[in-house]
Amino acid sequence: MFPSFTRRRTPPVPVDTTREIEVAGKMLPLTIRQNSRATRMTLRIEPGGRALKLTIPQGLADREVNAFLSRHQGWLMTKLARFSGESQLEEGGTILIRGIAHRIERSGKIRGLTETVIVGDDAILRVSGGEEHLRRRIVDFLKKEARHDLDRLVAVYAGRIGRRPKSLSLKDTRSRWGSCSADGALSFSWRIVMAPPKVIAYLAAHEVAHLKEMNHGPDFWALCEKLCPDTNDAKRWLRRNGTMLHAIDFN
Fold it and tell me: DSSP code of 128?
């Protein structure tokens, strides 16, 4: 729980503003939103740990916002320490593919496919091309694998309920893992291919279920669990690990 504060008239925080805040030597964008129904300040870390959002009561003094942020520096440092995926995308590092940690290894060839191989007990992602293209090639591989899995799963699940999606697209969204528009266009985050197979299956089932139930009511969840019996386990996995997948910087 965060403390409540008495409203001050001057100097007030602008209605909606964005600034930067330093946490452990790193500058992060901070969006401050006023909410007429808010009675206290609420600080949230956005998916991936790359931005912060602060909701405040209307008319709150700027100095009170600054004091609140100062008091929560330790909390922010502890929470943001979990987001350490940036250093993994290099030779010798690791990347999750369908829930299995693969060691990244350059093939030494300028041309060739990016592929997964098993050497002894080790799972390896073997990447061709120059070192400067390593991250891009890994992204291209993950997108290709995500497309393969989701195309197959969506076709199976949509066939079971007698519906047909308008389209299927892949994006790098941070606010949600997937979506289904009113006209049946499905969209997924390609990062889901780093999750275990049952989680990928759940996400496909979730969005396909929206082709029939455009809500999150009891009928929707019953259909989702019918399509994917691992729904509850997969949801728990995403709650625990989803931000870790978002935190990996592929740029």
Answer: -
- 122-127 and 115-119 beta bridge pairing: antiparallel
Q: What's the alpha-carbon Rg for the chain, to the nearest Å? A: 22
Quick one: which H or E segment has residue 155? helix 134-161
Distance separating alpha carbons of residues 17 and 29, to the nearest angstrom: 11
Bridge-partner residues for 94, per DSSP? 103
pLDDT by residue (tens digit) across 88-128? 688 888 899 999 989 999 887 877 889 999 998 889 999 98
Nearest by Cα to 162 from 212, 229, 221: 212
Antiparallel, parallel or unpaired: β 94-97 and 100-106 = antiparallel
Q: Which residue has the tokens 């003094």?
A: 61
Instruction: Give the global pTM.
Output: 0.70
Q: Which residues contact 170 (CB under 8 A, 6 or more apart)?
A: 143, 146, 147, 150, 187, 188, 189, 190
